[in-house]
């Protein structure tokens, strides 16, 4: 459980995914084949607020039986779109009052 404890302690969030559910296979045939989702993309709340349209895709199986995790960060939240916040300390500056 040390990994789970680290994820919880750092308040990380699974970004989820689009595409195939599984990221790994043991490459066996028939009933011996095992599929698992063992690879994940994690972020914190600050990332989620900054990159609100982040998408994770499971793509292109490799020779090792793993799929790549491709993270697309579209429509990056523009810093200028944040609401204006008035700071009371500005009243102390003679040039601001």
Tell me roughly what share of residues is in helical segments.
Answer: 10-25%
The 3D shape can be described as: elongated
Q: Unreliable stretches, pLDDT < 50, 5 or more residues?
A: none
- Main sheet: strands, sense, barrel: 3 strands, mixed
How many domain regions?
1
Instruction: Give, in spatial order, the strands making up the sheet with the most strands.
Output: 2-6-7
Q: Helix and strand string, N-terminal first?
A: HEEEEEHEE
CA-atom Rg in angstroms: 21 Å
Content-based structural category? alpha+beta
Query: Strand percentage, roughly?
Result: 25-35%
What is the number of strand segments? 7
Whole-number average pLDDT? Answer: 82
Number of helices, where a helix is a run of at least 4 consecutive DSSP H or I residues: 2
Distance between the termini: 56 Å
InterPro entries: Endo/exonu/phosph_ase_sf
Structural topology:
Layout: H1 2-9, E1 13-14, E2 18-19, E3 24-25, E4 35-36, E5 42-43, H2 45-50, E6 54-61, E7 67-73
């Amino acid at each position: 459980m040390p990994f789970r404890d680290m994820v919880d302690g750092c308040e990380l969030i699974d970004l989820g995914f689009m595409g195939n559910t599984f990221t790994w296979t043991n490459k066996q045939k028939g009933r011996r084949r095992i599929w698992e989702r063992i690879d994940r993309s994690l972020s914190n709340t600050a990332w989620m607020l900054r990159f609100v349209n982040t998408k994770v895709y499971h793509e292109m199986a490799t020779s090792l039986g793993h799929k790549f995790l491709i993270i697309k960060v579209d429509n990056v939240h523009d810093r200028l779109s944040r609401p204006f916040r008035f700071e009371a300390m500005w009243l102390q500056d003679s040039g601001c009052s």
